[in-house]
Design brief:
two-stranded parallel sheet, Homocitrate synthase, Aldolase_TIM, TIM Barrel, 400 residues, alpha/beta, elongated, 12% strand, PYR_CT, single chain, AIPM/Hcit_synth_CS, transferase
Amino acid sequence: MQFTPENGRWPSPFNTAAELSRLNGRTIRVADCTLRDGEQQAGIVLDRDDKVEIASALEELGVYEIEAGTVASSEEDREAIAAICELGLKAKISVLCRGLEADIDMAAKLGVWGVRLSFPISDIEREYKLKGISEADYIARMLALIDYAASKNLAVVYSPFDTTRANLPFLRKVAAELARREAVDRLRIVDTTGCALPEAIRLIVENVKEAAPGLAMEIHCHNDFGLSCANTLAGVMAGADYVSTTINGIGERCGNASTEEVVMALEVLCGYDTGIQLSRLKEVSELVDRLSGIAVHANKAVVGYNAFRHEAGMVVAGVLKNPYTAESYDPVLVGQKRDILLGKKSGLVSVKYKAEKLGLDLTEAQMAQMLQTIKQEAVRLKRAVTDAEFVALAKAEIQG
């Protein structure tokens, strides 16, 4: 039987149960918010040069929009946003504004394409952040802010944060009013505390689509329960055409949906061409890792150091015959490479592979002895054995 991957990708055939045809003819766009929500992760400080460098990398990656920061954050942030606007990027540049005309004024002066009006919608947020504003007054204030931004020639992404804890009839009313007025570029569904299940995201998006046909939607999910990527995909499958994500998933508390994870899930699992330069994902991840000071954990999906490294003997035996026995896509797609490690879980096939790769002439008996030596050394070191250590151990074995 002949097995052939398609374009370096081999996902589960059961993914068709997700009715992937719903993506046909649609345009899914990445609105990356690494420079805004990403920097909001506790302890991260990105200066002007950092932000310009990351924005340039995101442009080369091919994202549709860059959410460049919060205008009210600091003078340095505003200078960074202005500098990004001056780069003349193809990506649209937007900024986060609170529900204040003063924020909109600052945004207009910076030369951005648009603003993201962040105005809380759930009962708890309205009670404690908007002094218990009524539903009628909320809508009136929302429309006044949108009209004010429009008067400054700014596109508006309306972002009613804590959407996933909103009163659903009220959310439908807000969406219907936005659609009726044709007032905004899109509505952003925000899972502010990362507290929704994928089914909840689907329900919300479908309700908004029903209440406001034609209103474009963006999905912005936090990762407090490790569901941000799944929730973002649920939003897309339900009808959202913009994904709000961050490189490496950095962001408030437990982070946001990861740009690289969402993109590769769409590409590999859904068979959707995002237009993103996939081979640059690892490179951009390393840039954000370095500039943010937040190290990517080793087993991070897509860009992690261990994402395509194999040690267990049974796994390696399959990988060396056909990598798709243990991987669903070729690591080259994302700028990664496959590696075989020698350690406690290794088998003889790994030793043979490494010996051949490193040009070591070992007999069968010597390789069997080397396997035991490697296992003992790995236990002593509490890690895998490096290639240099393997060579040294092998030479000692050969010399007797």
